[in-house]
Amino acid sequence: MDQLVSPSFAELPAKNGRNSLRIEYQWLNANWTDAPIAVFLHEGLGSVAMWKDWPQALCNRLGFRGLVYSRPGYGASTPREAGTEWPVDFLHAQALDVLPALLDVLDIGHAERARMWVIGHSDGGSIALLYAAAFPDALAGVIAIAPHVFVEAMSVEMIGQARVQYTQGDLRSRLARYHADVDSAFYGWNGIWLSPAFRDWNITRLLSSIRCPLLAAQAEDDEYATMAQIDAIALHAPQAMLAKLPAGGHSPHRQCSDSLDATIEEFVTGKAVSRH
Fold first, then answer.
1. Engineering a disulfide at 50: which of 77, 117, 178, 201 sits with its beta carbon 3.0 to 4.6 angstroms away?
2. Which domain range does residue 238 map to?
3. H helices of the chain, where?
4. What pLDDT digit, counting tens, does each position of 205-251 carry?
5. How many domains does the chain have?
6. Which is it for strands 117-121 and 37-41: parallel, antiparallel or unpaired?
7. What is the C-alpha separation between 128 and 143, in angstroms, rounded?
8. In this structure, how many other beta carbons lie within 10 angstroms of the beta carbon of residue 17?
9. Strand partners, 26
């Protein structure tokens, strides 16, 4: 999945003032029709292609079907209009509007959603937590990898450095293979995270609404955030299991996938057994 080859598309109808959207998506293990679904939510610069092979490998390990998709503004999905800035609640909109609308269009019903796992990385981890808080009875569990639940100074600093790498280095050319409109993807993410209005973004008060099993994983050497992120999750959602990895940077599913995958398998298997 490291190239945009023959994607499928879902058309989301206009709703609540937003325009209709064209969403790039891909099913994994599509013929495993009786298996639970894992929905993968990518990072702030991610897409279907940028996940590469990790979702497939994890689904094979867990015996899951998988659904990966590119959010609006990313991959081959509807791009962000030039000059448009994401609002402060842009992650909420993805959790409360876009993801449920996509599940509706793909005809994923209530019974399937009740068995569904939502797996998110970075911004996608935040969306996974927001979805679990808003729909506490509509999923089997959530796995948040290096999620953000409030804004830390080091995150802003690193995202500022990313802009320099994008405008003066090779980051733009490296990202261009994963996005049909690379400026849409980069400046949407970079702009909102560097906006002064976003400094006070904080979703910790919503986490107590999460009732499903929850695994939050983060590496000690994460360059974008500290362990305060997942510690806050445990404080507000006491059922959460924390996986504090000694190394793995901001993308442990890439840098230490064996360790992370084993942790996820143990967690999912244990929770699935305990809920029967």
1. 178
2. 8-274
3. 54-62, 90-93, 99-105, 110-114, 123-134, 153-168, 171-176, 182-193, 228-236, 252-255, 257-274
4. 999 999 999 999 999 999 999 999 999 999 999 999 999 999 999 99
5. 1
6. parallel
7. 8
8. 5
9. 68
